[in-house]
Amino acid sequence: MDPVSENPSSFQPKRPALSWGVKIKRKLKSVAPFLGRFRPLVGQCCHQCTPESLGLKLLRNTPPLGFQNLTCVNETHTGYRGWLVRRVCCLLFVWGCEVHPSPAGDIRHRVHGSERVRQALMKACSPDETKAMEQVMPEVRSHLGRLLTITQTFISPWLLRLVSWMLLKFFSLIFCSVQVNLNQMAALHRATQLKYPLVYVCVRQSGIDQALICLTLFCHNLRVPYTIYPAHFRQTWLRSILQRLGVILLPEGCGSERDAKMDSLYSPVMTSAGLMSALRFAISLLKGDHRGSVRIHFAQAFSLKEMCESGKCRVDGGRPLQDLLLTAILHDRMDTIFSQKDVSWLLPPAVMPELSPADRQQTIALTLHLMYSSTTSMAIMSTSLVSCLLLHKHRKGVRVSMLCRDICWLLEEVLFRNTDVGYGGSLVGLVHHALSLLRPYLLLAAAPPTGEPIIAPRPDPDSLLILSQHCDSLTHVFIHEAVGACAVSAMLSEVVGCGGGGDLEFDVVLGQEELTEKSLQLTHLLSPGFIPPCQTAHGFALDVVDSMVRCGVLVMEEVQKDTPVCDFMKRQGVLSWAVSDNPDQSSDSDCEEPDARSYKLSQPSQCPELLFFLCSLLSVRLRALCWALESLHYLPSPITERDCLSQLHAHLKNRAQLDKAHYETSSIDLVRMVLRTFIDLGVLIEDGQREDVYLDVSPLFSQCAHKEKLLQFFKQFMYN
Q: pTM of the prediction?
């Protein structure tokens, strides 16, 4: 869901300050939101872990179904007609929606009767308390104590209708539309017919996400799930209202949601409410000069039981990142990079310690699937396209006419990758609306002598950070090409280094094996969510090389026509010759060709622009790694993890201020990524023997030579 998503065809803004005049022709072609007859099906479940769920075909492309504006309610949504109905149609619609109530007593019964709750109580109680608990059920209730407040949550039908009516009015004021994909809603209706409880997992992008999702489900006659809100309210009346709307509040005495999860009783109690949702419900006002639109996406439901029983997605057996890359970084050996990376840090042992190793690994696998599904289900908005082009291709400014041409090109590339987009209409209206939403973060000027507008990103930290956040979705779309471009750039840099320096030489031959190894090294540095969970890193690296050919950056090296193929390949040493021991075996040739291939840049004179654009998509992350490594000696030793995060963040912001550029590299999310990478690489060593987790610089990387090798390893993937 994107809080600044837009649909220009339904957007009717006031006369904006931006004016294109007659400099841009109004008869430019329309922008198609998809290729062919149907929109791409996004958010499908994993074909390897849940093939039966995928075979149910819950998510289908139905031509009559399109998009619905949730806030546009009229008399056709009710069973009545007339002048008075048109005045109160929203109220009639809300009162006509189906509500699935859930009494509080039903939840208490499920919690108290849960076997997991009983076992957790036995572990937490003394032997005498356990004996009494087994004999008398009221004693069990009293022992739950502060966690008993969770069971007071229920859904009141009349209050849910009233709040839904208020939310419809509220969202119609702050958004021009709330778009919902009716194909995805139809898939949810099919999933409910299977009679299994649904658990919704939301990737939070704004403070009103949970309210929007619950309202969407209510308006489509789907059961509104219980939602979790990780905060405390001192107002008794507000807690009472939220609990009657199905909002689960943290029990008194828990400092945060993480503290609550550390409680041995928290997990059993929460998992014994059958329709628990991982949504966190919060309502906050949005302020802005321009009203945008919202697109809400629902991925295809899948069977958690099928995923657990199939056992096809395994995350055990992974090796630490330092075991995979340190030999390549320090000793230039590639024999260890082909293994899988360990991701057990996603669920630390301190969280839910009662889980068995098998359950813990399965939970991590589920987390990886949800992270990847959330990134591939979201549509690309025009604000993302404009932000990406301004940051990574036209950072110094661009004419609006050229920006329109580049948006058409980038849009086609996005659609070719089976990714959904959330807009359509005329090209001028599309660009104008995107620039209107991004206007606070842009600089506008007139180019003499024609006066055509020139757009450039505003060179201040807040503006560049906002634009960079809009670019993240496109980085996921082009992740194969971005990794491949960085690998090509690294190999070209090696050619320059072997030649004694100078400019990059683009007319060179690149070997498939070396290109795959470079791609694999960079793949190990990616955060979870970029790579499909059921795909190996090596398989992803092979796909990277293929994607570079498909997008036209690389072409296979052609063999001279006047030379026999076998003779040419034999002289190059890429064929192995074999003589068959079976004379009866028929064979067209005695030469066997391995998979090794060679590639060249397709158009060396024109390719650098596209190559550098793709490299720039990952340069923000790589630059953050370089800057943090260079400032590592400023950190005191030892230092707590929280203080280390804070000081690294301060160092990156200071570095951006000194360079007066690349402020987007200093975001707190990138600092978290850097800290996690340094811990996995062994640059920082964790000391968990104390009450807090302390970090210390590894003696290995205290040496300047090893630190410089790691720095050059990061820098090789950045274009220069």
A: 0.81
